[in-house]
Design brief:
CATH architecture of the largest domain: 3-Layer(aba) Sandwich
CATH class of the largest domain: Alpha Beta
Bound molecules: pyridoxal-5'-phosphate
Low-confidence stretches: none
Radius of gyration: 21 Å
Number of helices: 15
Largest sheet: 7 strands, mixed
Number of strands: 18
Structural class: alpha/beta
Shape: globular
Oligomer: single chain
């Protein structure tokens, strides 16, 4: 399997399936490219027409270990033979407890921790909010501009971007308040240098003077914003926000659903900041594609809700737990985190010079290999270049490389390749991406 789209994309079988999909599946369930995958291996996928793509999108940040990782496959096969489902509320199984123990150990902080499991990222966020409200007996939740926290009622309310996540789906959940995120490239207050502290000071002021610090249960944020455009929080902001929360007994919820599990070269992005959150949500790469999410937090907070107040029919499915244990073991014992760091440095080495070379590249940023390229029509005004981003992504696809966009203005190309990608595939993928950026720049 090497990159090969010589048959043309989409091929006849994918085209046929796209017609059937249009008949059978609502249009709102979006797809970036019109292909149907038949099989995958590591960072490559082959579609139903036999076209093979290099994958820099990782099934939307889920495949940090790539497809068919031997350790994950072995664990899943073994568990499938034993039992596929029990429901932890009916009769328990050891995998659930082992995943909880492992996350309690790996999540930053020396305090006693506990973990509950659910199915999706949105569900983890919902549970984190429920637990925070119960534990503090307060109702307000503070979130940030550009945030993404899922598509359920609370998740979508916490999410910043109206189109496509919120439009027409209201009314939204109450008691959710949004503050400016320190986006260094587009500082909402102050300058790129001062935006971290300025946003922290502003947050403290709004909490104290408008919300009332004794009404705020939690602050939730992504240390590196994902859907919002791969925007890392400045260091001073994270440290100051942690202080602000601690001083007011507000819980600090770190949503690491996209940035966690090695995506930034560390197990959790919070480790880059030496910040210890009160609760962490994980999902996406946690079980290498099987649906699993978790809320890990201070034991006393996690234990606040009454017996039977938390849970769900499928939460912590045994097969997903087996996969997660394999993922967590591989990330802890293998060399993937070092590989991720090297991958990030290599990508930055190739992409950073484009900021000077190309008019269309306004910013290249990220943490480790979680990297965003923000496209603009004019470097001075920073006018978002949404059409250019779409053109780059489409040109990559036509050349056999899968990449995704992000950003409140749909103008960020983001990289989240499986950490297992070979150096050759990574470079080949980057060659295609850089060619696409140059061509788009020349056409602008
Ligand atoms: C993807 C994502 C979610 C939602 O996860 P789902 O599994 O799609 O519900 C929540 N928060 C962040 C930061 C995410 O990236």
């Amino acid at each position: 399997m090497t990159r090969d789209v010589s048959g043309g994309v989409p091929g006849p079988d994918s085209t046929e399936w796209t017609k059937r999909r249009e008949e059978a599946v609502p249009r709102a369930v979006f797809n970036t490219v019109p292909i149907f995958v038949d099989r995958g291996e590591g960072a490559r996928v082959t579609d139903v027409d036999g076209n093979t793509f290099i994958d820099l999108a990782g099934g939307l940040a889920v495949l940090n270990l790539g497809r068919n990782h031997p350790r994950v496959l072995a664990a899943v096969r073994e568990q499938v033979e034993k039992t596929v489902h029990e429901c932890f509320h009916v009769s328990m199984y050891t995998g659930y407890v082992e995943v909880a123990e492992t996350l309690n150990r790996l999540v930053p902080g020396d305090h006693p921790k506990k973990t509950m499991l659910a199915n999706s990222g949105a569900e983890a966020v919902e549970n984190a909010v429920k637990i925070a409200r119960y534990a503090t007996d307060r109702s307000a939740i503070v979130c940030f501009s550009n945030a993404f926290h899922g598509r359920t009622l609370v998740g979508m309310t916490l999410t910043a971007k109206e189109m496509p996540y919120k439009k027409g789906f209201g009314p939204y959940a109450p008691e959710i308040y949004r503050l400016p995120f320190p986006y260094e490239y587009r500082p909402p207050i102050g300058t790129s240098e001062t935006v971290g502290l300025a946003c922290a000071e502003y947050a403290a002021d709004v909490i104290d003077s408008q919300l009332g610090s004794e009404s705020v249960a939690a602050v939730i944020l992504e240390p590196v914003q994902g859907e919002g455009g791969y925007i890392p929080a400045p260091h001073d902001f994270m440290v100051a926000l942690r202080e602000i929360c601690s001083e007011r007994d507000i819980l600090f919820i770190d949503d690491e659903i996209q940035s966690g599990l090695g995506r930034t070269g560390k197990m959790f992005a919070a480790e880059h900041y030496d910040v210890v959150p009160d609760m962490i949500t994980t999902a996406k790469s946690l079980a290498s594609g099987l649906p699993l999410s978790a809320v890990t937090g201070l034991a006393e907070v996690m234990d606040a809700p009454h017996v039977a107040g938390l849970g769900g029919t499928y939460g912590g499915n045994p097969v997903a737990c087996a996969a997660a244990l394999a993922v967590l073991t591989e990330l802890s014992e293998g060399d993937l985190l070092e590989r991720a760091t090297r991958q990030g440095e290599h990508i930055r080495g190739r992409l950073d010079p484009l900021v000077d070379e190309l008019n269309v590249v306004g910013d290249v940023r990220g943490l480790g290999p979680m990297i965003g390229i923000e496209l603009v029509t004019d470097k001075r005004t920073k006018e978002p270049a949404k059409t250019a981003a779409a053109a780059v992504i489409n040109a990559c696809y036509e050349s056999g490389v899968l990449v995704l966009k992000a950003g409140t203005y749909d103008n960020v190309v983001r990289l989240m390749a499986p950490l297992v990608i070979s150096e050759e595939d990574l470079d080949e993928g980057l060659d295609v991406l850089i060619d696409a950026l140059r061509a788009t720049d020349a056409a602008a």
